[in-house]
Each structure stands twice: as C-alpha cells, then as structure tokens.
Design a protein that fits this description.
Oligomer: single chain
Number of helices: 15
Radius of gyration: 22 Å
Order of helices and strands: EHEEHEHEHHEHEHHEHEHEHEHEEHHH
Helix content: 40-55%
Structural class: alpha/beta
Bound molecules: ligand GMT
Number of strands: 13
Strand order of the largest sheet: 3-2-1-4-5-6-7
Largest sheet: 7 strands, parallel
Distance between the termini: 18 Å
Strand content: 15-25%
Shape: elongated
C-alpha cells in the first residue's frame, strides 16, 4: 500500500510512534510518505520505501499567525495526487485530522478518493482538543475519519466522554521493537554515571507541567535521605526544566542529578538504569514507561489515565496516587532494598513489554488499512 503519515516531527510520543510505525511499514514493503514541517527526529534510516515531504509555510507580514493547517492541507493534496497514496494516517488530531478532512474534500473534487485514519494520542483529546477554541472542529474531524484509533482503552473512553462521538473507536496500543532495547548494558556508560556502583533512577520526558517532573526530584530526594548510593538521570527538556533545576539546588542534590537534555536515542541510558520514574498527572499511555520496561527497567509511576494498561502493579513495577511522592519513594526503596524483588520486577517489566511488540501491533494497523482501502474499491 502507499501510505501517507502525518505527524509532529518532535521528540514527543506521537511523533516517535508515527515514525517507528512508518519505518516498520516500509520494511514490510509498503511505500510510506511522511508529511510534516520538519524531518521527524527518528526518521534516521535510508530505505527506498521511505519518503519525506516537508510542509513549507509562506509567511507574510499580514499573518500574525501563519496558517499551517492550510499549507499542510495543500501538501496532503499534492502528495496524495502525485504519489498516488491509498490513504492518509494522521497522528494527533490537532490540526492533522481536520487538514486530512479538508484534503479529502479537495481531492474528491478531482475525483480522487482519499480516506484517512486518525490516531488519537493524548493531549489532543484530554487537554488541548477539549478547549472550546478547537472542540467543534476536532469532534467533526474525528467523526468524519474513515477509521479512528486510540492508543489505550482509557483514551478511547475519554474521547467518547469529552466529545460528541457518533462512531466506533478502535484501541491499538503503542508498541516497541524489543530488539532495540535488548542489547547488554554498556559497562563503560554505567561507570560514567554510577562510578561507585550506585543505583540509577531515570526519567525521560518533555518537562511539561503534566509530567510533574518536580515530583521525580522529590521522590529522588526522599530516596537519598535513606540511602546515599543513588543517582538520578533526567533526560529531556521543556517548560518546567528551570523549575526542576531550581528545586535540585534548593534540595542540595545537584551533584547527584545528571541533566542530560534532549537525546534522540535513550536506549543505552535505559539499559544501565535500575528504576524509571513516571510521575505524570495523567498519560493516555505512557510510552516512556513502556520503553523503560522493554529495557528491563521496572517503573514506579502514577496510577492514572492509561498508565495502568502498561505498568502492572507488582509485575513490571508499582503504581501510586498522583503526587504521593512518599509512597513512590517507599516503593523505590522497597525494590532497591531487596535484590530478588528487583530482579523479579526487571524480568516482569521485560515480559510485560513483550505484549507490546511491534510484530504484534503492526498487523493491527495493516488490517485496518486494508479495510479502509478495500472500502475504497467497493465504493468505485
Ligand atoms: O503530551 C505529550 O506529552 C506528548 C504526546 C504526544 O502526542 O507526543 O504524548 C501522548 O502520546 C504518547 C504516544 O501515544 C503517549 O505515550 C503519552 O502518554 C501521551 N501524553 C499524554 O497523554 C500526556
């Protein structure tokens, strides 16, 4: 099939999922065309089935706000027409679903049918999309999609609760490629961050308020009060980074915390870590936790949104109430204080992550695409 994938190119989860999906589809001989405003960060391989089309926005002094959605729509029309796409798969509803809808109408005027699949990822529904400034458009574009998927059961339900949805939503979970996390941990890297054999805690995110990264620091500070042989790796950047840095200074723990900034590949760091912290207010899924689990790193997380569909209490880690940093620290100390428990959780994390193997999830998308494309054939 010829598939157009529309996504954000950034480090955020939806962009990574879309890119990994496209790469896996290309490896299975589908022709994949990425359409975005910049090259997706994970689109780092050469394959004759992979194409990238950049959305260029023409600026003009009149525009206080450049009309990205129009430029994207024009690009979708152009690529669908000239590459002969069978369908578009848009990741993150805003503004991708409404742009795909508009492109579909324009293409219909040329006699070209252009179905689109919308995958809902999280804040497009739970935070941004619900805002009155977007809600009517998002509701319409979701309802008009040829198929809609959500990355968790929680998100499917939230979409139906928050929007006036008159159609089915399929749940297709996020996925990982286990081989990418399987390699042995680098002893050299481990020595760099844990020179005295310390236990390593790690957190990766975009440091947005919803991630509550300050809670990560609070948990770490509590763990350190009990045992001094721990260090914290913080990966990523975003609006709350400055506040997090200040908190580390106030708590006098800077020398035990490594601020590593944005990194394209986190696998080597996950492989050398002992515990992952995910303290979010909510997550529709929690891809970062799944990536950690795939590397055999147990997760102490909040028990909110779709996270319990990923992290299983007592199996791959522990779940605590949002903001309960005392309970989270207690769970970390419990695991670090009992090597056999830690080993059990490591094995449990890896095993649970296998349930989200791309080899299981990819056929779900392929089947859905086939249904959409064959509906096209029937319609003609
Ligand atoms: O909101 C973000 O943090 C980024 C966002 C994205 O779309 O890039 O992440 C959402 O999608 C991820 C991939 O499906 C999920 O793993 C995250 O849980 C979800 N974030 C939230 O729901 C806060």
């Amino acid at each position: 099939m010829k598939i157009g994938i529309v996504c954000y190119p950034t480090f955020g989860g939806s962009g990574v999922v879309a890119t990994e999906l496209g790469k896996a589809l290309a490896a299975r001989n589908h022709e994949v065309h990425f359409i975005s405003y910049s090259q997706p960060v994970k689109l780092d391989i050469f394959n004759r089935n992979l194409h990238y089309h950049e959305v260029r926005i023409q600026d003009y002094p009149l525009f206080d706000y450049t009309p990205y959605e129009l430029a994207l729509t024009s690009k979708l029309v152009d690529v669908t027409k000239y590459a002969g796409l069978d369908l578009l798969h848009v990741h993150y509803a805003i503004p991708h679903a409404s742009a795909a809808y508009m492109a579909k109408q324009i293409l219909a005027s040329y006699g070209i049918r252009s179905p689109y699949v919308t995958t809902l990822h999280g804040t497009d529904i739970t935070l941004v999309g619900r805002d009155q400034s977007y809600e009517p458009v998002i509701t319409f574009a979701i309802n008009q999609s040829d198929r809609v998927t959500a990355v968790s059961e929680y998100l499917r339900k939230a979409t139906c609760d928050y929007f006036d949805i008159n159609r089915e939503i399929d749940v297709i979970p996020n996925f990982i490629c286990p081989d990418e996390y399987a390699g042995p941990p680098s002893a050299d890297l481990r020595r760099q961050f844990a020179p005295n054999g310390e236990k390593l805690l790690i957190h990766t995110s975009n440091f947005r308020p919803v991630k509550r990264v300050e809670d990560v620091v609070e948990v770490f500070a509590r763990v350190r009060k009990v045992r001094s042989d721990v260090r914290l790796l913080l990966v990523g950047d975003g609006p709350n980074k400055v506040g997090v840095e200040k908190l580390c200074r106030d708590l006098n723990i800077c020398e035990h915390v490594e601020m590593l900034g944005k990194l394209k590949d986190v696998e080597p760091l996950l492989q050398i870590s002992d515990m992952f912290l995910l303290t979010s207010e909510y997550e529709s899924f929690g891809l970062a936790a799944l990536e950690a689990m795939a590397a055999g790193v147990p997760v102490v997380s909040s028990n909110t949104g779709g996270i319990p569909e990923v992290n299983e209490e007592g199996v791959s880690g522990f779940l605590c109430n949002v903001g309960d940093v005392d309970a989270m620290a207690a769970r970390v100390l419990e695991a670090f204080g009992d090597e056999s428990l830690l080993k059990k959780l490591q094995a449990g994390a890896r095993k649970r992550a296998e349930m989200f193997d791309i080899r299981t999830v990819l056929p779900l998308y392929e089947n859905l695409y086939r249904e959409v494309v064959s509906a096209k054939v029937e319609a003609h």
